[in-house]
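Let us work through a complete example step by step.
Step 1: write down the sequence.
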Amino acid sequence: MAIPTNIKTLLSGDVVEWARIEFKETWDPAASLKTICAFANDIDNWGGGYIVIGVKSGRNGEPDELVGVAPGKIDGYLKDMLNKCKLIRPEYMPITEVTEYKGKKFIIVWAPGGSVRPYSSPKTMAKDSKERIYYIRKMSSTIEPSAEETRDLFALANNIPFDDRVNHEAEITDLNITLIQSYLKEIGSSLFDASEKMDFVDLCKSMNIVNTLPEYTKPKNVGLMFFSLNPERFFPYAQIDVVQFPEDLGGDTIIEKTFKGPLHQQLREALQYIRNSIIQEKVVKLPDVAEAKRFFNYPFAAIEEALSNAVYHKGYDVREPIEVRVLPDRIEIVSHPGADRSITEEGLKTYHVFNRRYRNRRIGEFLKEMHLTEGRNTGFRKILNALEKNGSPKPIFETDPERLSFSSTLLIHPAFDGKNVGVNVGVNVGVKLNSTQKKILDLIKKNPKYTNEEMASQIGVKKRTVERNTQTLKSKGVIIRHGSDKSGYWSVNEGF
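Step 2: predict the structure and record it as C-alpha coordinates.
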Protein backbone atom coordinates (compact mmCIF):
# COMPACT_ATOMS: atom_id res chain seq x y z
CA MET A 1 0.00 0.00 0.00
CA ALA A 2 1.32 3.46 -0.89
CA ILE A 3 1.93 6.06 1.77
CA PRO A 4 0.86 9.72 1.46
CA THR A 5 4.38 10.99 0.86
CA ASN A 6 7.67 9.74 -0.62
CA ILE A 7 11.13 8.97 0.68
CA LYS A 8 12.66 12.05 -0.91
CA THR A 9 10.25 14.25 1.02
CA LEU A 10 10.95 12.38 4.25
CA LEU A 11 14.73 12.61 3.81
CA SER A 12 14.53 16.36 3.22
CA GLY A 13 12.68 17.15 6.44
CA ASP A 14 11.03 20.12 4.73
CA VAL A 15 7.43 18.85 4.95
CA VAL A 16 7.43 16.30 7.77
CA GLU A 17 9.13 17.41 10.98
CA TRP A 18 12.16 15.42 12.15
CA ALA A 19 10.37 14.57 15.40
CA ARG A 20 7.84 12.64 13.33
CA ILE A 21 10.45 10.55 11.50
CA GLU A 22 12.70 7.83 12.85
CA PHE A 23 15.47 6.32 10.71
CA LYS A 24 16.63 2.71 11.19
CA GLU A 25 19.36 0.77 9.45
CA THR A 26 17.44 -2.49 9.91
CA TRP A 27 14.13 -3.66 11.27
CA ASP A 28 14.51 -3.66 15.05
CA PRO A 29 11.25 -5.13 16.45
CA ALA A 30 11.90 -4.25 20.10
CA ALA A 31 12.57 -0.55 19.45
CA SER A 32 10.42 -0.01 16.38
CA LEU A 33 7.25 -1.50 17.90
CA LYS A 34 7.46 1.03 20.73
CA THR A 35 7.88 3.85 18.23
CA ILE A 36 4.89 2.66 16.19
CA CYS A 37 2.86 2.57 19.40
CA ALA A 38 4.03 6.10 20.28
CA PHE A 39 3.11 7.46 16.85
CA ALA A 40 -0.32 5.81 17.13
CA ASN A 41 -0.88 7.51 20.50
CA ASP A 42 0.04 10.86 18.90
CA ILE A 43 -0.02 12.68 22.23
CA ASP A 44 0.77 16.06 20.65
CA ASN A 45 -1.77 15.65 17.85
CA TRP A 46 0.88 15.87 15.17
CA GLY A 47 -0.65 13.19 13.00
CA GLY A 48 1.52 10.18 13.83
CA GLY A 49 4.86 9.58 12.17
CA TYR A 50 7.15 7.50 9.95
CA ILE A 51 9.88 4.93 10.34
CA VAL A 52 12.27 4.67 7.39
CA ILE A 53 14.22 1.38 7.35
CA GLY A 54 17.48 1.39 5.44
CA VAL A 55 18.79 4.75 6.61
CA LYS A 56 21.55 5.29 9.15
CA SER A 57 20.71 8.24 11.38
CA GLY A 58 23.07 10.91 12.63
CA ARG A 59 23.55 12.30 16.11
CA ASN A 60 20.41 14.48 15.98
CA GLY A 61 18.22 11.81 14.46
CA GLU A 62 18.56 13.18 10.95
CA PRO A 63 19.54 10.92 7.99
CA ASP A 64 23.27 10.30 7.78
CA GLU A 65 23.81 7.46 5.29
CA LEU A 66 21.50 5.66 2.86
CA VAL A 67 22.43 2.01 3.34
CA GLY A 68 19.26 0.47 1.92
CA VAL A 69 17.67 -2.89 2.74
CA ALA A 70 18.97 -6.05 1.12
CA PRO A 71 16.22 -7.35 -1.24
CA GLY A 72 16.44 -10.82 0.31
CA LYS A 73 15.51 -9.45 3.74
CA ILE A 74 12.48 -7.38 2.79
CA ASP A 75 9.84 -10.13 2.95
CA GLY A 76 11.17 -11.37 6.28
CA TYR A 77 11.09 -7.88 7.75
CA LEU A 78 7.50 -7.29 6.57
CA LYS A 79 6.25 -10.63 7.91
CA ASP A 80 7.91 -10.07 11.29
CA MET A 81 6.53 -6.54 11.39
CA LEU A 82 3.01 -7.86 10.78
CA ASN A 83 3.31 -10.38 13.60
CA LYS A 84 4.86 -7.95 16.07
CA CYS A 85 2.28 -5.21 15.41
CA LYS A 86 -0.44 -7.67 16.41
CA LEU A 87 0.89 -7.25 19.96
CA ILE A 88 -0.33 -3.64 20.08
CA ARG A 89 -3.58 -3.12 22.02
CA PRO A 90 -6.15 -2.04 20.94
CA GLU A 91 -5.69 -3.47 17.47
CA TYR A 92 -3.54 -1.22 15.30
CA MET A 93 -1.67 -1.79 12.06
CA PRO A 94 0.61 0.75 10.35
CA ILE A 95 0.81 1.16 6.58
CA THR A 96 3.99 0.04 4.85
CA GLU A 97 5.55 0.62 1.45
CA VAL A 98 8.71 -0.75 -0.17
CA THR A 99 10.27 1.94 -2.32
CA GLU A 100 13.41 2.45 -4.36
CA TYR A 101 15.65 5.51 -4.14
CA LYS A 102 19.05 6.03 -5.71
CA GLY A 103 19.25 2.36 -6.68
CA LYS A 104 18.54 1.04 -3.19
CA LYS A 105 15.48 -0.46 -1.48
CA PHE A 106 13.84 1.10 1.58
CA ILE A 107 10.86 0.21 3.74
CA ILE A 108 8.69 3.10 4.88
CA VAL A 109 6.37 2.47 7.82
CA TRP A 110 3.67 5.07 8.24
CA ALA A 111 1.89 5.11 11.62
CA PRO A 112 -0.88 7.74 11.65
CA GLY A 113 -2.51 8.80 14.90
CA GLY A 114 -4.92 6.06 15.92
CA SER A 115 -8.64 6.54 16.35
CA VAL A 116 -9.02 4.48 19.54
CA ARG A 117 -6.22 5.74 21.73
CA PRO A 118 -4.48 5.03 24.04
CA TYR A 119 -2.40 2.19 22.61
CA SER A 120 0.03 0.00 24.52
CA SER A 121 2.72 -2.47 23.52
CA PRO A 122 4.83 -4.99 25.49
CA LYS A 123 7.77 -3.54 27.38
CA THR A 124 10.03 -6.34 26.11
CA MET A 125 9.87 -8.99 23.41
CA ALA A 126 10.37 -11.80 25.94
CA LYS A 127 7.69 -14.49 25.72
CA ASP A 128 6.81 -14.27 29.41
CA SER A 129 6.65 -10.44 29.41
CA LYS A 130 3.22 -9.24 30.56
CA GLU A 131 3.99 -5.59 31.31
CA ARG A 132 2.53 -3.16 28.79
CA ILE A 133 3.43 0.50 28.31
CA TYR A 134 1.54 3.41 26.71
CA TYR A 135 4.53 4.75 24.80
CA ILE A 136 4.51 8.36 23.62
CA ARG A 137 6.64 10.54 21.39
CA LYS A 138 8.39 13.59 22.85
CA MET A 139 10.54 15.61 20.50
CA SER A 140 12.41 12.95 18.48
CA SER A 141 12.38 10.28 21.22
CA THR A 142 10.04 7.42 22.12
CA ILE A 143 9.60 7.33 25.90
CA GLU A 144 7.52 5.84 28.69
CA PRO A 145 5.04 8.47 29.88
CA SER A 146 5.03 9.89 33.36
CA ALA A 147 1.90 9.56 35.49
CA GLU A 148 0.82 13.05 34.41
CA GLU A 149 1.49 12.30 30.74
CA THR A 150 -0.52 9.08 31.04
CA ARG A 151 -3.46 11.09 32.38
CA ASP A 152 -3.03 13.56 29.52
CA LEU A 153 -3.03 10.70 27.02
CA PHE A 154 -6.25 9.26 28.37
CA ALA A 155 -7.84 12.72 28.46
CA LEU A 156 -6.73 13.34 24.89
CA ALA A 157 -8.23 10.06 23.75
CA ASN A 158 -11.54 10.92 25.39
CA ASN A 159 -11.58 14.28 23.62
CA ILE A 160 -11.52 12.90 20.09
CA PRO A 161 -15.09 12.07 19.16
CA PHE A 162 -15.62 9.71 16.25
CA ASP A 163 -17.07 12.41 14.01
CA ASP A 164 -13.95 14.56 14.42
CA ARG A 165 -11.48 11.83 13.50
CA VAL A 166 -9.61 11.60 10.22
CA ASN A 167 -10.88 8.87 7.90
CA HIS A 168 -7.82 7.16 6.44
CA GLU A 169 -9.91 5.08 4.02
CA ALA A 170 -11.34 8.09 2.18
CA GLU A 171 -9.91 10.62 -0.26
CA ILE A 172 -10.41 14.36 -0.63
CA THR A 173 -12.29 13.60 -3.86
CA ASP A 174 -14.97 11.87 -1.77
CA LEU A 175 -16.06 15.33 -0.61
CA ASN A 176 -18.55 17.00 -2.96
CA ILE A 177 -18.13 20.71 -3.72
CA THR A 178 -21.82 21.11 -4.64
CA LEU A 179 -22.96 19.78 -1.25
CA ILE A 180 -20.48 22.02 0.54
CA GLN A 181 -21.55 25.13 -1.36
CA SER A 182 -25.22 24.32 -0.84
CA TYR A 183 -24.64 24.12 2.91
CA LEU A 184 -22.64 27.38 2.99
CA LYS A 185 -25.36 29.18 1.03
CA GLU A 186 -28.08 27.85 3.32
CA ILE A 187 -26.44 29.08 6.50
CA GLY A 188 -25.42 32.43 4.92
CA SER A 189 -21.70 31.91 5.33
CA SER A 190 -19.25 34.34 3.72
CA LEU A 191 -17.31 31.27 2.62
CA PHE A 192 -19.98 30.66 -0.03
CA ASP A 193 -18.81 33.56 -2.21
CA ALA A 194 -15.15 32.81 -1.53
CA SER A 195 -15.61 29.11 -2.39
CA GLU A 196 -15.86 29.92 -6.09
CA LYS A 197 -12.23 31.04 -6.15
CA MET A 198 -10.68 29.16 -3.22
CA ASP A 199 -8.58 26.05 -3.61
CA PHE A 200 -10.82 23.12 -2.69
CA VAL A 201 -8.47 21.80 0.01
CA ASP A 202 -8.19 25.26 1.57
CA LEU A 203 -11.98 25.50 1.60
CA CYS A 204 -12.23 22.16 3.38
CA LYS A 205 -9.55 23.20 5.86
CA SER A 206 -11.48 26.37 6.57
CA MET A 207 -14.48 24.22 7.42
CA ASN A 208 -12.31 21.87 9.48
CA ILE A 209 -13.58 18.82 7.59
CA VAL A 210 -10.11 17.58 6.57
CA ASN A 211 -6.86 17.13 8.44
CA THR A 212 -4.15 19.74 8.00
CA LEU A 213 -0.98 17.72 7.39
CA PRO A 214 0.70 19.16 4.28
CA GLU A 215 1.83 15.78 2.99
CA TYR A 216 -1.42 13.97 3.73
CA THR A 217 -4.86 15.43 3.11
CA LYS A 218 -7.74 13.23 4.21
CA PRO A 219 -11.37 14.01 5.08
CA LYS A 220 -12.65 13.89 8.62
CA ASN A 221 -15.61 11.67 9.35
CA VAL A 222 -17.92 14.62 9.82
CA GLY A 223 -17.03 15.90 6.35
CA LEU A 224 -17.94 12.57 4.80
CA MET A 225 -21.17 12.35 6.79
CA PHE A 226 -22.47 15.66 5.43
CA PHE A 227 -20.63 16.27 2.17
CA SER A 228 -20.17 12.84 0.60
CA LEU A 229 -22.78 11.62 -1.86
CA ASN A 230 -22.61 8.12 -0.38
CA PRO A 231 -21.58 8.30 3.30
CA GLU A 232 -22.77 4.70 3.78
CA ARG A 233 -19.60 3.63 1.93
CA PHE A 234 -17.63 4.69 4.99
CA PHE A 235 -20.28 4.29 7.69
CA PRO A 236 -22.37 1.18 6.98
CA TYR A 237 -26.01 1.56 8.02
CA ALA A 238 -25.67 5.32 8.46
CA GLN A 239 -29.34 5.57 7.49
CA ILE A 240 -32.85 6.07 8.81
CA ASP A 241 -35.35 3.22 8.49
CA VAL A 242 -39.01 4.15 8.88
CA VAL A 243 -40.91 0.91 9.52
CA GLN A 244 -44.70 0.84 9.85
CA PHE A 245 -46.53 -1.99 11.63
CA PRO A 246 -50.24 -1.32 10.88
CA GLU A 247 -51.26 -4.53 12.68
CA ASP A 248 -48.76 -4.11 15.53
CA LEU A 249 -45.57 -6.16 15.92
CA GLY A 250 -47.31 -9.51 15.55
CA GLY A 251 -49.05 -8.60 12.29
CA ASP A 252 -48.22 -9.75 8.77
CA THR A 253 -48.04 -6.27 7.17
CA ILE A 254 -44.82 -4.26 7.32
CA ILE A 255 -44.18 -1.08 5.33
CA GLU A 256 -40.52 -0.08 5.24
CA LYS A 257 -38.82 2.99 3.80
CA THR A 258 -35.05 3.61 4.00
CA PHE A 259 -33.36 7.00 3.76
CA LYS A 260 -29.65 7.26 2.92
CA GLY A 261 -27.22 9.96 1.81
CA PRO A 262 -25.76 12.99 3.63
CA LEU A 263 -27.06 13.16 7.19
CA HIS A 264 -28.99 16.39 6.82
CA GLN A 265 -30.61 15.22 3.58
CA GLN A 266 -31.71 11.84 4.92
CA LEU A 267 -33.05 13.52 8.06
CA ARG A 268 -35.09 16.02 6.06
CA GLU A 269 -36.40 13.38 3.66
CA ALA A 270 -37.40 11.04 6.50
CA LEU A 271 -39.20 13.88 8.30
CA GLN A 272 -41.03 14.87 5.11
CA TYR A 273 -42.12 11.26 4.59
CA ILE A 274 -43.41 11.06 8.17
CA ARG A 275 -45.24 14.36 7.79
CA ASN A 276 -46.92 13.24 4.56
CA SER A 277 -47.58 9.57 5.36
CA ILE A 278 -48.03 9.28 9.11
CA ILE A 279 -49.11 12.58 10.64
CA GLN A 280 -52.90 13.02 10.78
CA GLU A 281 -54.99 15.93 11.96
CA LYS A 282 -58.39 15.64 13.58
CA VAL A 283 -60.90 18.48 13.87
CA VAL A 284 -63.72 18.12 16.40
CA LYS A 285 -66.56 20.55 16.75
CA LEU A 286 -67.83 20.78 20.30
CA PRO A 287 -71.35 21.87 21.26
CA ASP A 288 -71.75 25.49 22.38
CA VAL A 289 -68.13 26.24 21.42
CA ALA A 290 -67.47 28.48 18.43
CA GLU A 291 -63.96 27.30 17.69
CA ALA A 292 -63.34 23.67 16.72
CA LYS A 293 -60.69 21.65 18.54
CA ARG A 294 -57.70 20.65 16.37
CA PHE A 295 -55.00 18.18 17.24
CA PHE A 296 -52.69 15.66 15.61
CA ASN A 297 -52.05 12.00 16.24
CA TYR A 298 -48.45 13.08 16.86
CA PRO A 299 -47.19 16.67 16.92
CA PHE A 300 -44.63 17.00 14.13
CA ALA A 301 -42.34 19.23 16.23
CA ALA A 302 -41.89 16.42 18.77
CA ILE A 303 -41.02 13.86 16.09
CA GLU A 304 -38.68 16.32 14.40
CA GLU A 305 -36.77 16.95 17.61
CA ALA A 306 -36.66 13.28 18.66
CA LEU A 307 -35.39 12.11 15.27
CA SER A 308 -32.89 14.98 14.99
CA ASN A 309 -31.55 14.05 18.42
CA ALA A 310 -31.16 10.44 17.27
CA VAL A 311 -29.10 11.61 14.26
CA TYR A 312 -27.08 13.90 16.53
CA HIS A 313 -26.25 11.28 19.17
CA LYS A 314 -26.00 8.06 17.16
CA GLY A 315 -22.66 6.25 17.24
CA TYR A 316 -21.61 6.10 13.59
CA ASP A 317 -19.01 3.47 14.34
CA VAL A 318 -21.91 1.16 15.28
CA ARG A 319 -23.37 -0.70 12.31
CA GLU A 320 -27.01 -0.15 13.17
CA PRO A 321 -29.50 2.20 11.50
CA ILE A 322 -31.73 4.67 13.26
CA GLU A 323 -35.13 3.01 13.28
CA VAL A 324 -38.48 4.79 13.44
CA ARG A 325 -41.12 2.20 14.33
CA VAL A 326 -44.67 3.31 13.66
CA LEU A 327 -47.16 1.15 15.57
CA PRO A 328 -50.94 1.55 16.01
CA ASP A 329 -50.59 3.36 19.34
CA ARG A 330 -47.07 4.80 19.35
CA ILE A 331 -43.94 5.81 17.49
CA GLU A 332 -40.59 4.50 18.74
CA ILE A 333 -37.35 6.10 17.61
CA VAL A 334 -34.42 3.82 18.40
CA SER A 335 -30.71 4.58 17.93
CA HIS A 336 -27.44 3.00 19.00
CA PRO A 337 -25.62 3.11 21.36
CA GLY A 338 -27.46 4.25 24.46
CA ALA A 339 -27.25 7.42 26.50
CA ASP A 340 -24.05 8.53 28.19
CA ARG A 341 -23.50 7.21 31.72
CA SER A 342 -23.97 10.73 33.05
CA ILE A 343 -27.68 10.39 32.18
CA THR A 344 -29.50 8.30 34.77
CA GLU A 345 -32.63 6.20 34.30
CA GLU A 346 -34.33 8.26 36.97
CA GLY A 347 -33.42 11.43 35.07
CA LEU A 348 -34.99 10.01 31.92
CA LYS A 349 -38.20 9.12 33.77
CA THR A 350 -38.53 12.59 35.30
CA TYR A 351 -37.22 14.42 32.21
CA HIS A 352 -34.45 16.05 34.24
CA VAL A 353 -31.50 15.36 31.97
CA PHE A 354 -28.18 17.13 31.64
CA ASN A 355 -25.70 15.53 29.26
CA ARG A 356 -22.11 16.28 30.25
CA ARG A 357 -20.58 14.48 27.30
CA TYR A 358 -21.65 14.81 23.70
CA ARG A 359 -20.84 11.90 21.42
CA ASN A 360 -20.73 13.99 18.23
CA ARG A 361 -19.77 17.60 18.81
CA ARG A 362 -19.19 18.32 15.09
CA ILE A 363 -22.45 16.79 13.88
CA GLY A 364 -24.22 19.00 16.40
CA GLU A 365 -22.53 22.09 14.94
CA PHE A 366 -23.82 21.39 11.43
CA LEU A 367 -27.33 20.41 12.53
CA LYS A 368 -27.64 23.53 14.67
CA GLU A 369 -26.47 25.78 11.81
CA MET A 370 -29.26 24.33 9.66
CA HIS A 371 -31.74 24.65 12.55
CA LEU A 372 -32.38 20.92 12.59
CA THR A 373 -31.74 20.53 16.29
CA GLU A 374 -31.74 22.70 19.39
CA GLY A 375 -28.90 23.81 21.64
CA ARG A 376 -27.45 21.95 24.60
CA ASN A 377 -29.93 19.96 26.69
CA THR A 378 -33.03 21.65 25.24
CA GLY A 379 -34.32 18.75 23.11
CA PHE A 380 -36.34 17.05 25.84
CA ARG A 381 -38.06 20.30 26.78
CA LYS A 382 -39.03 20.99 23.17
CA ILE A 383 -40.54 17.51 22.85
CA LEU A 384 -42.47 17.88 26.12
CA ASN A 385 -43.81 21.31 25.11
CA ALA A 386 -44.98 20.08 21.71
CA LEU A 387 -46.77 17.09 23.22
CA GLU A 388 -48.40 19.15 25.93
CA LYS A 389 -49.62 21.75 23.43
CA ASN A 390 -51.16 18.98 21.33
CA GLY A 391 -52.80 17.32 24.35
CA SER A 392 -50.71 14.18 23.86
CA PRO A 393 -49.43 11.86 26.61
CA LYS A 394 -45.94 12.44 27.93
CA PRO A 395 -43.10 10.64 26.13
CA ILE A 396 -41.05 7.71 27.38
CA PHE A 397 -37.26 7.92 27.15
CA GLU A 398 -35.35 4.71 27.80
CA THR A 399 -31.84 3.31 27.69
CA ASP A 400 -30.79 -0.20 28.67
CA PRO A 401 -28.36 -0.85 31.57
CA GLU A 402 -25.56 -1.74 29.14
CA ARG A 403 -26.19 1.51 27.20
CA LEU A 404 -26.46 -0.32 23.88
CA SER A 405 -29.49 1.60 22.61
CA PHE A 406 -31.68 4.62 23.28
CA SER A 407 -35.41 4.81 22.63
CA SER A 408 -37.83 7.74 22.47
CA THR A 409 -41.48 6.65 22.53
CA LEU A 410 -44.24 9.08 21.54
CA LEU A 411 -47.72 7.82 22.39
CA ILE A 412 -50.63 8.52 20.06
CA HIS A 413 -53.13 11.21 20.99
CA PRO A 414 -56.03 9.46 22.84
CA ALA A 415 -58.59 10.83 20.37
CA PHE A 416 -57.03 8.69 17.64
CA ASP A 417 -57.35 5.58 19.81
CA GLY A 418 -61.04 5.48 20.67
CA LYS A 419 -61.14 8.28 23.23
CA ASN A 420 -63.96 10.82 23.08
CA VAL A 421 -62.21 14.15 22.88
CA GLY A 422 -65.17 16.03 24.29
CA VAL A 423 -64.86 14.54 27.76
CA ASN A 424 -62.34 15.29 30.44
CA VAL A 425 -59.21 13.23 30.85
CA GLY A 426 -59.87 10.41 33.29
CA VAL A 427 -63.28 9.43 31.89
CA ASN A 428 -62.99 7.22 28.80
CA VAL A 429 -65.43 5.70 26.41
CA GLY A 430 -64.82 2.79 24.06
CA VAL A 431 -61.20 2.32 25.06
CA LYS A 432 -59.58 -0.70 23.41
CA LEU A 433 -56.90 -2.54 25.32
CA ASN A 434 -54.32 -4.94 23.95
CA SER A 435 -53.62 -8.27 25.66
CA THR A 436 -50.67 -6.94 27.67
CA GLN A 437 -52.70 -3.99 28.94
CA LYS A 438 -55.54 -6.29 29.98
CA LYS A 439 -53.09 -8.45 31.96
CA ILE A 440 -51.62 -5.35 33.63
CA LEU A 441 -55.11 -4.19 34.57
CA ASP A 442 -55.93 -7.58 36.11
CA LEU A 443 -52.72 -7.52 38.16
CA ILE A 444 -53.37 -4.00 39.43
CA LYS A 445 -56.87 -4.99 40.51
CA LYS A 446 -55.35 -7.86 42.50
CA ASN A 447 -52.54 -5.82 44.02
CA PRO A 448 -52.44 -2.02 43.53
CA LYS A 449 -48.87 -1.90 44.90
CA TYR A 450 -47.34 -3.98 42.09
CA THR A 451 -44.27 -2.34 40.56
CA ASN A 452 -43.56 -2.40 36.82
CA GLU A 453 -40.76 -4.86 37.43
CA GLU A 454 -43.02 -7.21 39.39
CA MET A 455 -45.71 -7.04 36.72
CA ALA A 456 -43.16 -7.75 33.99
CA SER A 457 -42.10 -10.87 35.88
CA GLN A 458 -45.71 -11.99 36.34
CA ILE A 459 -46.67 -11.48 32.70
CA GLY A 460 -43.40 -12.74 31.25
CA VAL A 461 -42.38 -9.62 29.31
CA LYS A 462 -39.64 -7.00 29.62
CA LYS A 463 -39.92 -4.21 32.15
CA ARG A 464 -39.75 -1.72 29.29
CA THR A 465 -42.89 -3.26 27.75
CA VAL A 466 -44.81 -2.87 31.01
CA GLU A 467 -43.63 0.74 31.44
CA ARG A 468 -44.77 1.62 27.94
CA ASN A 469 -48.18 0.02 28.42
CA THR A 470 -48.80 1.52 31.86
CA GLN A 471 -47.98 4.92 30.36
CA THR A 472 -50.59 4.24 27.65
CA LEU A 473 -53.15 3.15 30.25
CA LYS A 474 -52.52 6.31 32.23
CA SER A 475 -52.91 8.48 29.13
CA LYS A 476 -56.25 6.78 28.39
CA GLY A 477 -57.46 7.47 31.90
CA VAL A 478 -57.73 3.78 32.73
CA ILE A 479 -55.33 3.81 35.68
CA ILE A 480 -53.85 6.46 37.97
CA ARG A 481 -50.53 6.38 39.80
CA HIS A 482 -50.47 7.70 43.36
CA GLY A 483 -47.16 8.47 45.06
CA SER A 484 -43.64 7.57 43.96
CA ASP A 485 -42.53 4.68 41.76
CA LYS A 486 -41.21 2.74 44.78
CA SER A 487 -43.72 3.39 47.55
CA GLY A 488 -46.83 4.47 45.61
CA TYR A 489 -49.80 2.47 44.34
CA TRP A 490 -52.18 2.19 41.40
CA SER A 491 -55.90 2.82 41.22
CA VAL A 492 -58.29 1.82 38.42
CA ASN A 493 -60.90 4.28 37.15
CA GLU A 494 -64.53 3.30 37.52
CA GLY A 495 -65.88 1.36 34.56
CA PHE A 496 -62.77 -0.69 33.83
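Step 3: interpret the result. DSSP finds 16 helices and 20 strands in the chain.
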